[in-house]
Amino acid sequence: MIIEDIWFDLKDGRRALLRSPREEDIPGTLDYLVRSAGETEFILRYPEECGRYTPELERAVFERKNASPTEAMLMCLVDGRVVGNCDIAVLPHIKARHRATVAIALLQEYWGLGIGTRMFRELIGIAEGFPQVTQLELDFIEGNDRARRLYEKMGFRIAGVHPDAFRFRDGSLHNEYLMIRKMNR
Ligand SMILES: CC(C)(COP(=O)(O)OP(=O)(O)OC[C@H]1O[C@@H](n2cnc3c(N)ncnc32)[C@H](O)[C@@H]1OP(=O)(O)O)[C@@H](O)C(=O)NCCC(=O)NCCS
User: Fold this and answer.
1) What's the pTM?
2) Smallest CA separation from ligand 1 atom 19, residue
3) Which tens digits make up the pLDDT trace of 10-22?
4) Cα–Cα 20 to 30 A to 136, which of 47, 72, 86, 99?
């Protein structure tokens, strides 16, 4: 689905824009995906695993998300630069259509400015428009305290653990946690 322009103020006084992805966002998105993979251990890929990200793939993802009635992607732009994105997708199977997954990531220099909080407000608002969806779900890697605090603030609670789901380059093993937020229906 298409989400029209949402402007809001960052904690440092700058203005930020949330909206659905457009063709012109492709170069900035590729840069953000590779850069963010190198800035934090808390997303799935290392930078050298980002080769699958190509302009063609991003164009196809943007088109699919924008055309879908049960999925949305929101890009965040600051001073015209893609600084992160988030998305929501209702699970497709009949038995799982009451569930929607959400995901989010930002470039490091834009952490702590309130973008994540605003993105989650919008994602929850979009989910409220899916009458069949009764719960939102996400995963985070052990140690990602900033993400965990954001999710708890937005009403998510830990519902399960996948022990030793990830091994970082330094050899350390980390659990993955499932969080769920029940919709008030
Ligand atoms: C996790 C992430 C999306 C959070 O977005 P953000 O824009 O930085 O979050 P916000 O600025 O809205 O802050 C949200 C909450 O995080 C918490 N927080 C902020 N700074 C923090 C810090 N230094 N340490 C721990 N928690 C912190 C606060 O509770 C804050 O809420 P508050 O401002 O009302 O006090 C962002 O940091 C990010 O992209 N990280 C890397 C990728 C990632 O981890 N993605 C999630 C994968 S599960």
Assistant:
1) 0.97
2) 112
3) 999 999 999 999 9
4) 47
